[in-house]
Design goal:
Residues 28-138 form the SHSP domain. Belongs to the small heat shock protein (HSP20) family. It holds the Pfam family HSP20. The protein is of the alpha+beta class. It has 2 domains: 1-31, no CATH class; 34-126, Sandwich (Immunoglobulin-like), CATH 2.60.40.790. The protein has helices at residues 7-12, 17-28, 141-150, and strands at residues 37-41, 46-52, 61-66, 69-74, 94-99, 104-112, 115-122. A 4-stranded antiparallel β-sheet has the order 1-2-7-6, with no helix packed on it. It has a 3-stranded antiparallel β-sheet with strand order 3-4-5, with no helix packed on it. 7% of the residues are buried. The model has no long low-confidence stretch (mean pLDDT 80).
């Protein structure tokens, strides 16, 4: 197993604590790949998560958005006893969590053709957008003298 030590980066970065925590959590996460999923960028501030949840219905899946996390859970409610000769479609319960960046919110969720699609949108508040700061102060004295000679 590979592990990386991020200690040297802590000295030269400010405010990235959450990012490093997420990387460390991802390293420790189990290798459960069920259900398979895609993450797509649809535009400048639009994203989509698609999960392949064949065999589940909409009432057997729940999507919960909470702070910077979206959680998708699936639980089969069909308790009927069936005799499978071969069962290739997994119907096991699952819980998949995705960490969202700041200001990314869940816009909607849809279910079609066995794919659960979750639309995400990033909306940065005006107060958080970069803005130019004017520098106040007196002009250097030699600049004023040159302007006086030219005039």
């Amino acid at each position: 197993m590979r592990t990386y030590d991020f200690t040297p980066l802590w000295r030269s970065t400010i405010g990235f604590d959450r990012l490093f925590d997420l990387v460390e959590t991802a390293q420790r996460a189990g290798e459960d790949n069920y259900p398979p999923y895609n993450i797509e960028r649809l535009g400048e501030d639009r994203y989509q998560i698609s999960l392949a949840v064949a065999g589940f219905s909409t009432d057997e899946i729940s999507v919960t958005a909470e702070q910077n996390t979206v959680t998708i859970e699936g639980n089969k409610t069909d308790k009927a006893q069936r005799e499978y000769l071969y069962q290739g479609i997994s119907a096991r319960p699952f819980k998949r969590q995705f960490s969202l960046a700041d200001h990314v919110q869940v816009k909607s969720a849809s279910f079609e053709d066995g794919l659960l699609r979750i639309e995400l949108f990033r909306e940065v508040p005006e107060a958080m957008k970069p803005r130019r700061i004017a520098i106040n102060g007196a002009a250097p004295s030699n600049v004023q003298q040159i302007e006086a000679r030219v005039a």
